[in-house]
Design a protein that fits this description.
The protein is an alpha/beta fold and 371 residues long. It has helices at residues 20-28, 47-53, 61-67, 79-82, 101-110, 131-148, 178-189, 201-211, 222-230, 252-257, 306-327, 329-335, 337-340, 366-369; strands spanning 2-5, 32-36, 56-58, 70-72, 90-93, 113-116, 170-174, 193-198, 215-219, 234-237, 263-266, 287-290, 293-296, 343-346, 349-350. Residues 4-137 form the Alanine dehydrogenase/pyridine nucleotide transhydrogenase N-terminal domain.
Length: 371
Amino acid sequence: MLIGVPKEIKNHEYRVGLIPGNVRQLVAHGHSVIVQKNAGTAIGLTDEQYAAAGATLVETPEEIFAKADMIVKVKEPQPHECRMLRPGQVLFTYLHLAPDPEQTELLLASGAICIAYETVTDVRGGLPLLAPMSEVAGRMSIQAGAKCLEKSYGGNGILLGGVPGTPAAKVVVIGGGVVGLNAARMAVGLEAEVTVLDKSLDRLRQIDQQYGRRVNTLYANIDTIEQAVLDADLVIGAVLVPGANAPRVVTKEMVAKMRPGSVLVDVSIDQGGCFETSHATTHAEPTYVVDGVIHYCVANMPGAVARTSTFALNNATAPFVLALADKGWQQALADDVHLRNGLNVFRGKLTHPALVEEGDARYLAADKAIA
């Protein structure tokens, strides 16, 4: 198989779909890899390293999209990239289609076979290709929130951990999944006062067993969320419904009642955001203010630590890329239900149930699509 790796073009996005080590592994299995020049240069992965691993370097993304059997990326394809996709070509990357109707329509029109990292599953019910970036984003959310709380960034001028004789900041994490657990871990490490809300009592018990009284746990409903948010200095939105739009758990009325200079960090923004006042921002302009409350809603947070993120993501995607290349997409999806769960778009049809409403004629079950 010929695998193509274009350079990422989203704002301040420096991650790359394949590291040289994974290119070498594919070449050792008899595959060919073409990589756009300077695809990894910004994070210290040089063209010389890719060439030494067996890749062929090409100048333009157009050449990659025209030749490759499978495109391996990190972020969702931008509109002109979608238009370069060919019928039957495989795209393996993050897609986050639910809040992005334009991308959805372009991918349907392309006729391509699009497999989304974020809906690939595992035997434990987890999302193994989303997890590494969720770990990064969860940890970064506290880092970003702490910076936004500084007075020079518009915050209320509070230090997360305080100092002797002063109170620590109140950090509220809504959602106890991978993002939420990593956010809580960082906030506890900085000695903030931390509260985690979740609808799963089992998850709350796990958090309590791990952290004891260092983390307060609350069952999430509209009342407990409102009380926690209004008392918070920093709120982390870490809510996920796999493949679907994130539920809006914090209303604009709640935001209007928050203390001026408080901070909201919406890590769910890739799936539409879990705060009613959220809209996606970029690393170039990461924040905006609503009713005196700072919103940090960067849609590709892990891109800020692109080298760490690239290696973490490649560690998770490598076996799936190799399976798709070795077996071909049809056999690989047939053999692995968890990879098959990643199939979102198939030759003009939507194949993930979270993307459609009942009766949508565009829907085709993934197992039927590959039959």
